[in-house]
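Task 17 of the worksheet. Students: predict the tertiary structure of the chain below and write it out as structure tokens. Keep your answer in the requested format; marks are given for formatting as well as content.
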Amino acid sequence: MESTIAQKLEALMKLQEIDSKLDALLKIRGDLPEEVRDLEDETLGYQTRKNKYLTEIEELNGDLKAYANAQKEAEKLIVKYKEQQMNVRNNREYDAISKEIELQELDMNLAEKRSNETKARIRLIEDELDKINQILAEREEALKEKKAELEVIIEESREEEKQILAAREKQVKKIEDRLLKSYEKIRANSLNGLAVVHVSRGACGGCFNIVPPQRQADIRDNKRIIVCEHCGRILADVESPVAAHK
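Model answer:
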């Protein structure tokens, strides 16, 4: 059976009451959930940087081994060529071997230079790692404290939140999908979480702009769902002057 406009508005108002209770409950937690998320993101960021530096150090240590091996290989060849130089038969052979020795010495010097540059880079990274480890330890401690603080607050209201969510789930089933989506969209764009409001003292209960008398009459008729022309909130009913002044 198709619900009347009045029934649809009543269902939306009940959902709004439930959501407002949930908002009030979550408001008690203040900025803690956001602070926890920020600290988690920050901690993850520092951990990612730390892992990147550790990987780079591992690669650089591999380079150091390669440079050390290159130096040892060059030293062996120099010894070998010098021995050969002792048994040359002419100046041409002597000069050829001398050039090979020079090349190996250049390779040794280049390997030593690159090794020193790599060691300097490792020292810089290790300095950065020390800073990151210190910051990371501070952030992890702060995160631990904030999480514990948040958990205490959540635990205190866990049962109440569970009941509110159960009531919400039950109420949502009474509202058609199209209307529910509109409600959720309006609510998401509202700073105070109000999607359905009363007209009180001739004004919208959400943005407090004046609602013209004819529009108030249309709202009372319950022939169609009417939204505030200023804020887009659903105007559920018009409070009587007596109720508005209570």
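Marker's comment: The chain has a mean pLDDT of 93. The two ends are 37 Å apart (CA to CA).
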